[in-house]
Amino acid sequence: MPTTDIVPYSIGVKKTTTFQSIELDPECLELTLVDDSKQTASKLDLAYILIKYIYVLQMKDKELPHVSRVGYLPVIDASPTEYSTINTILTRSKEIADKLELKYAVLVFDEAVYAKVQQVRWKEETFFNRFVVRFGEFHTIMTYLSAMSKIFEDGGLKVVFIESGIVNEGSIQGVLSGKHYNRSVSCHKIMYEALQRLRFQAFMDQMTEEDQEVMTSFIESMAGSFPEDKFLSDDIESPLMQQILESYELFIAESSSKSRTFAFWTMYIEMA
Predict the structure, then answer these.
(1) Which helix (H) or strand (E) holds 108?
(2) CA 79 to CA 56: how far, in whole Å?
(3) pLDDT of 110-153, one tens digit each?
(4) Across the strands, what pairs with 109?
(5) Which pTM does this prediction carry?
(6) Is the peptide bond before 8 cis (omega within 30 degrees of 0)?
């Protein structure tokens, strides 16, 4: 393995970044941005919950990942948390970006190194103007799971996880912090689906018997067409589905205004 010369580097006085203030056109603030992909995803999520509410389904993913070419960087035989090593990494990244004629480069680091990389980047103008530094997907999700648990842990989330038996008391902190990644994701998925079912059941309970029959028939129809192409064209994009979503959202808004507990767990569903 080739040796790497690491130039000693001292961070000195730590520096934080400054954000520029941007004046927005008042007319722009009145615009309502509609994200079609988000709406479609919400429809699919709700449809999946409703279908699974009646039938147990096995999801099938027909999409294949795109072919990628992976290039491995030279190994630096030194501690990645040392400022000298971080400075060497950023310097080498700049050299690689120059060779590839990249104006900007995105650098991905894990949780242990990210903060120190930002400290070096904020102090060196060359690095600051050239690099976009972010978490990897794994650590981004893990941090998000931890943030969710911080909000809802004392509101009953911890008790539900333990009392339901999906997590034992000795493992609960690892699940809530996101450190036990797979179990944490699994627990939040189960919690999301359970709350979504309870909320939709409350929505159906306030309907007339005739409307409940129409709703049940539509859900059974979706279950019958899943996962065929007509599931998207005939069910998800149907006027009836849009009508159900509008009524459901109105019910959520009204119930949230009447009950803080309902609003609290609705926020969890939206975040999960």
Answers:
(1) strand 105-109
(2) 49
(3) 888 888 898 889 888 888 889 999 988 888 889 899 999 999 98
(4) 135
(5) 0.67
(6) no
